[in-house]
Amino acid sequence: VVGRVGKSVCIPLEIPEGDVIELYWKFRPLEPDSLIAVFFEGKFYDHYQDRFQSRLGISLSDKSCTLQIHKLQFQDSGIHDIKIIILKDKWKLTEEFNLTVYEAVSSISLKEFNSTETPKPSPDQTCNITIVCSVEKGSHVTFIWKENGKNITKDKFLQVSNHTTKMEIVLKHEEINVTYSCEVHNKVSQENATINPWKFC
């Protein structure tokens, strides 16, 4: 299960026919027996852990039970254990789900640096440009560079840090219309920006 910081996530659980009379929700990164929420006698209680209080919910319908976590935080990532007791013969069902919370990718910053000695190369000269692509925020991000819409192999650019990558290119005069794009994404968001580097030659 994947969630985004500050947003909500809903986890549907399939249950056998019968009314849910009890539900016990535990968060494994805490102590093994630490409850974070309980459904009992038709009421839902989430006051067991301060940081989860007022952020949890439950929705019950025929053969389904949907758990909700609101205003997601990084610390909500981990294994959640659920024990459900069904009215019919007090049948017990145990479920678990692994939640990973991601921070969304922020807007991309593209910067260009011209290392060519001649400001405006003549038709028989080349232009050396370094393009730096970075984002301020985003967890577990992946960078993809493209030239005229086609992916560039990873050996052509350098990953400077978790949030920054750069690429050095040599442009010929006939490549005046070539565009380069930087795409940054994770499992919950994506950003991209495009540039025509020749105008910086």
Automatic annotation (TrEMBL):
Compartment(s) where it occurs, according to its Swiss-Prot or TrEMBL record: Membrane
InterPro entries named in the record: CD2/SLAM_rcpt, Ig-like_dom, Ig-like_dom_sf, Ig-like_fold, Ig_V-set
Residue span(s) of domain Ig-like: 129-196
Cytoplasm in keyword set: no
GO cellular component: membrane
Main location (coarse class): membrane
Keywords: Glycoprotein, Membrane, Signal
PROSITE patterns linked to this entry: IG_LIKE
Official protein name in the record: Ig-like domain-containing protein
Upper lineage: Eukaryota, Metazoa, Chordata, Craniata, Vertebrata
